Amino acid sequence: MAQTQKKFMNSSADDLLRAFKIKVTGNIIWAGGITELILSVAQFLLGNTGQAVAILCAGVFFTGAAWFYQGRRVPILVRVMFIGLLTIISVISIYKNGTIGVYWTYPLLVACFFVFSGFLGIIAAALLTLIFGVTAIYAMPLDDGWRIATTLAIICALGSVFVVLLSELQKLLRKLVVTDTLTGLHNRHLVTGVLEDAIYRFRRYQRPATIMMADLDHFKQLNDTHGHLFGDQILKQVAERLQSVLRRNDQVFRVGGEEFLVVLPETGNAEAQVVAEKLRSLVSEHSFNGKDANVDVTLSLGVAQYAENQTWVEWLNAADSALMEAKRKGRNQVQVAEAPAERTAEPA
Ligand SMILES: Nc1nc2c(ncn2[C@@H]2O[C@H](COP(=O)(O)OP(=O)(O)OP(=O)(O)O)[C@@H](O)[C@H]2O)c(=O)[nH]1
Question: What is the pTM of this model?
């Protein structure tokens, strides 16, 4: 069981990206908080006691928040407060110190793209550009004010383009991570989510669902005889044939070298058995055309309908055991998993 769980429990691209974003936002808040602590000392030394106390409070709050939320998502309210407070400090600084006060606006503008995700970052950066630009024009000679407002707007525009490109790249990466490049089918990364959805629908609406584990027979022999590239061509054609029979809402995954998982929502054992037979005969009864030869390939399948109180690992194991049984009984056949022994629901 542990092996099945390990095989399918890969972190998804989304999980990895989420963890990365949490780390970046946390680090920015750390850096911002510590910078404020240092700045407050500088303000004390300059004799600006009021400003120093305000910055010190902000510094203590944000280093505390960064420490408290380590490894977790920092709540939006804290992030808004972080950017908001630094914006107020920067505006006061521009107003009081003129050009010297502008320096902090640039890193703050860039930080918006990291502290808020996607379009929220663009909106925050645009808002800050407007606030700083207007303050600069108002508080400085017009020549300086316009220059500062323009450079801030350029940074905002470049950052926004970067965010849009990054979100496109993210979509592409996600697609690549969940797609098997040889067959174009989904790979195992989406399996857990799809099975959990099916289990949810069963528990909530009593909708049946059945899975099939399908494995090509003696594929090693085919590879050894015709070569790996030839084997690849056959795998592609098998994937096409499997898809040609299935319904739109059925899903096929390539979960191993020559192993496929088919998920049939709204389908019970009897109906799934018919589909499995169809898949088996579609593969076994028509030759495959490789580059240099035509070959006959057979397919073994294990079918398992979801049974109450099963976990997704147990469900997969049931289909896997049925597949093993099909292999053991001579291959090129369909085996249906035995219904699991009655079990009472585990306490929530
Ligand atoms: N061409 C090709 N072969 C692959 C790929 N992934 C795995 N294989 C091969 O698939 C074969 C699987 O061999 P086995 O696990 O022994 O299974 P089998 O020969 O099909 O035997 P049974 O499953 O018991 O019928 C190995 O030779 C792998 O190298 C792939 O992407 N392309």
Answer: 0.73
